[in-house]
Amino acid sequence: MNKKIESVLAQGIDDITAGRATLEDVLNQHPGLRNDLEPLLQIALGLRETSSQVKPPPGFRSKARAQLMEAVSARSPSQGLLQLGNIWNRERRQGMVFKLATAMAALLVVLGLGGGTVYAAQDAQFGDLLYPVKTATEQARLVLSTTASGKAASHLEIAQSRLDELTNATVNGKSDVAHTLATQYRSHVLEALSWAAQASDNRSEQATLRLQEKLEAHQSAMEALSQEMPDIAEGKGQGKPDDVGKPEGVGQPEGVGKPEGAGKTTTDGCVYVKTGNQNRYQVWCNGVHLIVNTDNITNWLTNGLSAQAQAAATSETVPQALLAILDETAVEHFNFYGPLSHLNQELAPEEEQEQEQAGGQGKGKGPKSK
Amino acid sequence: MKRDILVEQAKRGDAEAFGKLYEIHVDEVYRYLYHRVGRLEDVEDLTSQVFLKAWQGIRKYRSQGIPFTAWLFRIAHNTVVDYYRSKKREVSLTELDADAGALDGAQQLEQEMERSQVRKAILQLREDQQKVIVLRFITGMSCSEVATIMGKREGTIRVMQHRALSALRSILAEGES
């Protein structure tokens, strides 16, 4: 019975759409299915009718076509990526930015750097072979964003990438790179704010709201980073992005020693660095950042934190088991970053209450309220 | 036939031929994304991205077995998947309503409200049901073409179509009550 109605429905839709039959013709041919068939046919035909009215807004086709054509034919393959990269550092004027970005987009196409390479480049870090592909793809995305709110969103995404790279660089003790990335992060945030302000009234409000949400999420990550490099958050001690020497004013944060060697990554994606104090580690794990004292950091991570942090990321709440881990005396400090940063606000009132009960003598552990 | 020639020219690097393919397909790609993506302001950017990706990959496209349209909509589908994966987007019904409210004129507003209501209902379907509904009724493809794009048998698409329309009927009925 069901199989029949499925076939009759499909055939009926095709016949009516092609003008070979009317709705009534199809229903009369299958009187036993009329009650089930009629509403489904009406919805199907109504969908076609309604959707035929959907068209791109006036001006979009020609504007987007012009940008696409520029992107696909702006430069010949002989102009290498390196050459364009040098020009990119020298010329940062608005017009040049547009031309170069379209050229880079075209270059990606011409060089045949298709989905696989571009996809692989998404995780590239500053200094990696594929990093120029990643940044060129970002510039292409900016050029292809045709609306102010779209450009704001694209700049925000790029800012998020720089922040992720900044975290990685900080973990690995690459202070010079970290300051370049911090500068670029701030630059893209400012661009995003500027474009959000230029969006039409209705969209400007939405764009600004998204920007605000994102920046609040970034704040806790920046706070975590500033413990490692205090002048990153304030933007001190930075040279030009392409001319960064050893930044001034980068001392060792109080209580947090400089990591001995690069940070290490566990098989389940947690990153930890040993601080100057013995058995004391900074950990970044699936949205949870903490400082912990332990004899065996690997066991400590795999036996609890990693899985519970993942559970928190999935449920976007704080499981009791994770709270129990964070409440261990070995944990000196914790806060949430990235997708879990909203949890800082959820936990803040309890923290404040605890501090009040303790006469304002909080133990400096747990998220800060904003 | 004309489109096949344009595809072959585009594969050899003819940007103008690709521009003509863009003219032929931009409305249906836009329409597809309009019904798959919650935020209207993102639809324009994603439409451009689909065609840039198509240009990037057209040299590798082989016509045997997969029509150009099916290939293009696979790119559109993957673009939507990437969009939701990277942004963890959720459909904002408030935003959809706001889009409708931005128009002038009572009739235009009424039409846009109707489109917005349909769009909202489609976005509440399961992902595979959304895809069948949009490809079949929004872009006007046959069951056979949808089967090619989704990599399923035509009979399976008919079953999915029936279930998707039934689910849509329930959602729309709930909306009215």
Keywords:
heterodimer, A: 370 residues, alpha+beta, 3 domains, five-stranded antiparallel beta sheet, 5 strands, 61% helix, extended, B: 177 residues, mainly alpha, Rna Polymerase Sigma Factor, Chain: A, Arc Repressor Mutant, subunit A, 9 helices, globular
Short summary:
By secondary structure, chain A is α+β, with helices and mostly antiparallel strands. Helices cover 61% and strands 6% of the residues of chain A. Chain B has 2 domains: 1-87, RNA polymerase sigma factor, region 2, helix turn helix motif (Rna Polymerase Sigma Factor, Chain: A), CATH 1.10.1740; 124-177, Orthogonal Bundle (Arc Repressor Mutant, subunit A), CATH 1.10.10.
How is this structure best described in words?
The complex is a heterodimer of chains A (370) and B (177). Chain A has 370 residues and is an alpha+beta fold. Chain A folds into 3 domains: 50 residues; 171 residues, no CATH class; 94 residues, no CATH class. Helices cover 61% and strands 6% of the residues of chain A. Chain A contains 15 helices and 5 strands. Chain A is extended, with a radius of gyration of 27 Å. About 24% of the residues of chain A have low confidence. Chain B is an all-alpha fold. Chain B folds into 2 domains: 87 residues, RNA polymerase sigma factor, region 2, helix turn helix motif (Rna Polymerase Sigma Factor, Chain: A, Orthogonal Bundle), CATH 1.10.1740.10; 54 residues, Arc Repressor Mutant, subunit A (Orthogonal Bundle). Classes of the chains: A alpha+beta (370), B mainly alpha (177).
